[in-house]
Every structure is written in structure tokens, then in C-alpha cells.
Amino acid sequence: MDKDIEVLREDYRKMNKSCFILGASGETGKELLKEIVTSRLFSRVTLIGRRKLTLEDEAYKEVAQEVVDFEKLDEFSAAFQGHDVGFCCLGTTKAKAGQAGFIRVDHDYVLKSAELAKAGGCSHFNLESSKGADKSSSFLYLKVKGEVEAEVQELGFERYTIFRPAVLLCDRQESRPSEWFARKMLVPVSYMFPTAYSVPITTLVKAMVNNAVLPGDKKVELLENKAIHSLGKLGEAKK
Ligand SMILES: NC(=O)c1ccc[n+]([C@@H]2O[C@H](COP(=O)([O-])OP(=O)(O)OC[C@H]3O[C@@H](n4cnc5c(N)ncnc54)[C@H](OP(=O)(O)O)[C@@H]3O)[C@@H](O)[C@H]2O)c1
Predict the structure, then answer these.
(1) Cβ atoms < 10 Å from Cβ of 53
(2) Is the CB of 232 under 6 A from ligand 1?
(3) Contact criterion met (CB below 8 Å) for 198 and 130
(4) Which among 10, 79, 108, 202 counts the fewest CB atoms within 10 Å?
(5) Contacts of 143 (CB under 8 A, 6+ apart)
(6) Torsion angle of alpha carbons 107, 109, 111, 115, nearest 10°?
């Protein structure tokens, strides 16, 4: 497979596909944007978000931005028109937005965006969900993640990929004490069980991009943390 991934990337580039990213200002989204721009896999890249981002690097000069009001997404359906592939890295926390706010973003905004993307012609939708997502969970976070996974599936994308990463390893600027604590605790555990409880964000975004170029033989792909690690390392042996 390591040998093939470069060939697959080259073939993918020739297809001149376009993509959008939701949540490009977040930790995953910004790293994903970097990976997408560096890999030059897409002929057009559009960020859809609630604010315009300052992208000073020359590499981002072709990146388009659509600013939308997520509370009135129907009025912004044009932003979702004509993208072949969509990556959704939206999300908030209960601590930041409260319970209702968390459901609004992680469920309502995600589902509505997916609906508009489908109507706009998107054939491959990629959703960043979470390890343990389960619509029957008694934990709100996991339940909401599980519900939105299932409801997006019902939209019937030609190809739908769900990523279920464990704790994301990154240098987050925003203060999130519980996540910070979990990451610190996970350092020795990650050393012993590297693919079980955490994943570096750089590995996750490589997995997202590598997976996109693989011929998707399943309509719905569910990628757990271990699979994300494997996909994220494709092609590394050659470097
Ligand atoms: N953190 C972890 O360890 C972890 C583990 C597994 C799964 N996940 C999931 O992975 C996804 C991405 O996580 P992340 O840590 O990369 O996210 P993040 O850094 O918190 O970024 C979240 C993105 O969502 C946008 N967003 C948040 N609230 C919004 C609102 N009210 N309206 C519009 N946009 C809003 C943010 O935009 P602004 O910049 O404008 O706020 C940002 O672009 C989330 O769904 C999360 O639940 C996280």
C-alpha cells in the first residue's frame, strides 16, 4: 500500500476535485487545511465558517472562504453548492457553550451542513466524530456524536466516512483543563499503547486525506482510532 499511495494521490489530483472544510479555525481543521493545501489534492478548496480567517501564507492564496450564519444556514445554501468532498471538523464543548449550545453545534449545525452539502452535490462527506460515539450512550457527548453520525448516514451520501479519534494530541491554545489533564496523563499510556487512547492531530489529518484518495469500496466507512493511526502513516515508509 505504501508504494501505491503516491500513485493514488496523483490519480486523485488529475480528477480536479473540489472540497470544503467546516471548522477550519479549530485545531483539527487548521491542520487539515495545511495538509490539503500542501498535498495539492484538490483543485479548489473552500472554507465554510462563521468568520473570515486571516490566511497570510502565500500557500493559501487560492483558498476561498464563505462566511455563514449557522443559525440561518438555509439562507446560505449557495456556500455548499458544487463541492465534491466535504470535511466536517466542527464542534464545541459543554463547558464552552452549555448543554444546549453543544447540541446546537455538534448535532444541529453538523446535520444541517451535511444536508446542504448533499443537496449541493457533495459525493464524499467526512465527519470527525469521536471514539465511543454511541446514540444509546448515557453520556451526552457520546450520545450526540452517535446520533449525528447516524442521521448524516441517512442522508445517503455516495461515500460517507466517519472518523472516531480518541484524545487529540496537539498544543491547544485555548485553555481546556480537563483535556489538558487527559493529555498529560496519556503521555506514558500513549507510549505503551500508541494507538489506543490518543492520536496526534497530524496523524488524524493525514488519515483523512489518505483515505479520501483510496478507492472507497464501502458506502459508509467507520474508522476507529487504530485505523486512523494506520491510515495516517500510509506512505511514510517511503520518506
Ligand atoms: N479534542 C479532542 O480530544 C477530541 C477527541 C475526539 C473527537 N473530537 C471532536 O473532533 C471535532 C474537532 O475537534 P477540535 O478539537 O479540532 O475542535 P476545535 O479546536 O474546538 O474547533 C472547533 C471548530 O468548530 C467551530 N465552532 C465552534 N462553535 C461554533 C459555533 N457556535 N458556530 C460555528 N462554528 C463553531 C470553531 O469555530 P471558531 O474558531 O469560530 O470558534 C472551530 O472551527 C469536534 O467535533 C470534537 O468533538 C475532539
Answers:
(1) 16
(2) no
(3) no
(4) 10
(5) 134, 135, 136, 137
(6) 170
* 98 Rama sector, left if φ>0, alpha if ψ -120 to 50, beta otherwise: left
Given the residues 30, 118, 145, 206, the one annotated as active site = 145
Name which residue sits closest to atom 18 of ligand 1, judged by CA.
26
Q: Is the CB of 110 under 6 A from ligand 1?
A: no
**CA 176 to ligand 1: nearest atom:** 1
Structural domain includes residue 54: yes
CB–CB of 213/239 below 8 Å?
no
Structurally, the chain folds into a number of domains equal to 1
C-alpha distances (whole Å) from 109 to each of 33, 70, 74, 114, 119 are: 20, 6, 11, 8, 15
What's the burial of 134, exposed, middle or buried (CB within 10 Å: 0-12/13-18/19+)?
A: middle
Residue-wise pLDDT for 1-60, tens only, equals: 544 899 999 999 999 999 999 999 999 999 999 999 999 999 999 999 999 999 999 999
Instruction: Domain of residue 189: give its range.
Output: 2-233
Residue 22 Cα to ligand 1 midpoint, Å, equals 9
Residue 199 lies in a domain: yes
CATH number of the domain that 104 lies in?
3.40.50.720
Q: Is 179 in the pocket of ligand 1 (CB under 6 A)?
A: yes
Whether ligand 1 lies within 6 angstroms of the CB of 51 is answered as yes
Given a cut of 70, whether residue 214 has pLDDT beyond it is: yes
Q: Is residue 239 part of a domain?
A: no
